[in-house]
Amino acid sequence: MMAKPRISSIDGKLAEEFAVPSHVEEVKEKMAVFASHHAAAGRRVVLITSGGTKVPLESRTVRFLDNFSSGRRGASSAEYFMASGYAVIFLHRHRSLYPYTRIFSNINMLDALKFSGGEGASGNSDVVVDQQVLPNIGKALKQYQEMKEGKLLLPIEFSTLSEYLHLLKAAAQALSPIGSKAMFYLAAAVSDFYIPASEMPEHKIQSSNGPLQLSMNMVPKILSPLVKDWAPQAFVISFKLETDATILLDRARRALDTYRHQAVVANVLDSRRGYVVVVTPETQAELIITDEDVKNDVEIEERIVSNLTSAHNKFITR
Length: 318
Ligand code: 9Z3
Hints:
By secondary structure, this protein is of the alpha/beta class. The protein is built from nine helices and 14 strands. The protein has one domain: CoaB-like (Rossmann fold, 3-Layer(aba) Sandwich), CATH 3.40.50.10300.
């Protein structure tokens, strides 16, 4: 007799209290085709989540609660994963940092261009890149074109917590058939609190009603069905963010004990660019970026990705 698939209570909650995005089935199919194509070509596939979720306070949303994340961790990690031979599904917050283009996200494009002929030139054919403003543009363009050529990146966008949760579930189910070749790298900053659809006011909350008191529910712990039911053979990494360094490792270990996934990357908000700890059930590796590394343009994501791709190797051949 065939075993019945497990339906967790989180599945029910997701369906009832979080609006299902209309394109979720279409996106799931795209992710499944992408994963099976790359797995058949001998590649591993990593699903990266990146950026912060948005939780609306009204259904015709004027105000919302946002989780902090620039998206840099996810975007730069995507580049290093592709450089290591992975195909990447990049589930990211709309308008957060994006692989390759992230290096000029703070630059006004018109400041990065100039006329080649100096004074007097004005036609489009005279416009060139100012290498002083964008010194690394040639390298980024080359990597970007290689990525496009190999169709190595599948970008998917979310804005709200509901979109994030449903799309992550769809991704887990879409990657499940490739088993241990799939990695989940959950770097997005996800809200712990939300207002269920049934309790959300439709219209803009009126300030004439006096001070606002909010009561929010706890977001279901999606890591649990992801690890147990949706993609049970995959290699799963979550991120733990704290502002108080003294509780960081304890929280990271607690997450590993609770969800029984493969690793937690633990970081503190202020030092996240220079220091993280990769915690597994058996090991604890500190990854550090020194001043010298910064001078040489070495980023911490290169070290995180190198650590995790080796661990994924061992996981597959165990
Ligand atoms: C992280 O800890 C990421 O490393 C950062 C990256 C969001 C700090 P940036 O995007 O920052 O480069 O600016 N992500 C996980 C954050 C999170 O919400 N984790 C939850 C928690 O710590 C568990 S999934 O409780």
